[in-house]
Design brief:
By secondary structure, the protein is α+β, with helices and mostly antiparallel strands. It is 58% helix and 8% strand. The chain has a four-stranded mixed sheet, covered by helices on one side.
C-alpha cells in the first residue's frame, strides 16, 4: 500500500511546466522525491503513470497520479492549505486562470516560434508575443506580484518569463522582454527570481543557453533540409 503522505514528481530540468510545480511544492514546504526523466527515452514509469500524454510533469501523491501542470498546481493548493496560491475571491481566481491560459497559449507559443524561425515568421511571432506581454504589463503595474504582496498561482504559471524568456531573447537575437517597453514586468521578474523558493530552484542560465542554442540549431537545420 502506498504511503498516503509520499509525494513524487517526475520532471525534466529544462521544462517550465515542471518548474512551476516544484516552486509550488517549495512555497508550501512539501517534501517530495524528484525523478528526472529523459523525454527522448521515456521511462516505463512515465508511460505507466501518464499513458495519455506521456509528458512531464507528473505528480504522485499517496499513489494517486495527477498530470498537467496547471491541474497539479490547483491540486497542490487544495490539498495543502498553507500559503494559498489561488485568490479567495471567485472573480480573482477566474482571472488568474484566464491570464495563465493566455500566457501559455499565446506568449509561450509565439516566443518559441520566434526562437526557432527567421524572417517574416519570426517578426510576426515577436509582434504577437510583444502584444501579449503588454497586457501583462498592465496587470502587474502597481503590484509586487500577480498574487498581490506574495507569490501566487499566476506568478508560478508565468514564472518561466523571468528565466526562459531572456534566454530565448539571447539565443534568438531578439528582444521580446524589453525593459524600455515593459518596466513593470522586468521589475516583477527581478522580484520573482530573488524569492528563495524560486532562486534556489532554477536551472543554471548558462546551461539553458547551451540547451536552447543546440535545440534551435537542430530545428533550423531540419527546416533547411525539408
Amino acid at each position: 500500500m502506498a504511503n498516503p503522505e509520499e509525494v513524487k514528481l517526475l520532471g525534466l530540468w529544462v521544462s517550465p511546466f515542471v518548474w512551476r510545480v516544484e516552486w509550488a511544492l517549495k512555497l508550501k514546504g512539501i517534501a517530495y522525491d524528484y525523478i528526472e526523466e529523459d523525454i527522448l527515452n521515456k521511462s516505463a514509469l512515465l508511460l505507466r503513470l501518464n499513458p495519455a500524454h506521456q509528458k512531464v510533469p507528473v505528480l504522485v501523491h499517496g499513489g494517486r497520479v495527477i498530470c498537467e501542470s496547471f491541474l497539479i498546481l490547483e491540486y497542490i493548493d487544495e490539498t495543502w492549505k498553507q500559503s494559498p496560491l489561488l485568490p479567495q475571491d471567485p472573480y480573482d481566481r477566474a482571472m488568474a486562470r484566464f491570464w495563465a491560459s493566455v500566457a501559455e497559449g499565446q506568449l509561450l507559443k509565439n516566443a518559441w516560434i520566434a526562437l526557432i524561425s527567421e524572417g517574416e515568421e519570426k517578426e510576426r511571432a515577436i509582434e504577437f508575443a510583444t502584444e501579449v506581454l503588454g497586457h501583462f504589463e498592465g496587470v502587474i503595474e502597481g503590484k509586487a506580484f500577480f498574487g498581490g504582496e506574495g507569490i501566487g498561482y499566476l506568478d508560478l504559471a508565468i514564472g518561466w518569463i523571468s528565466h526562459s524568456l531572456p534566454v530565448y531573447d539571447e539565443v534568438g537575437s531578439m528582444k521580446i522582454l524589453d525593459p524600455a517597453k515593459f518596466p513593470a514586468m522586468v521589475a516583477w521578474t527581478g522580484r520573482f527570481v530573488e524569492h528563495p523558493a524560486i532562486k534556489e530552484n532554477l536551472p543554471p542560465r548558462d546551461k539553458l543557453v547551451v540547451y536552447f542554442r543546440n535545440k534551435r540549431s537542430q530545428i533550423m537545420a531540419s527546416k533547411s533540409h525539408a
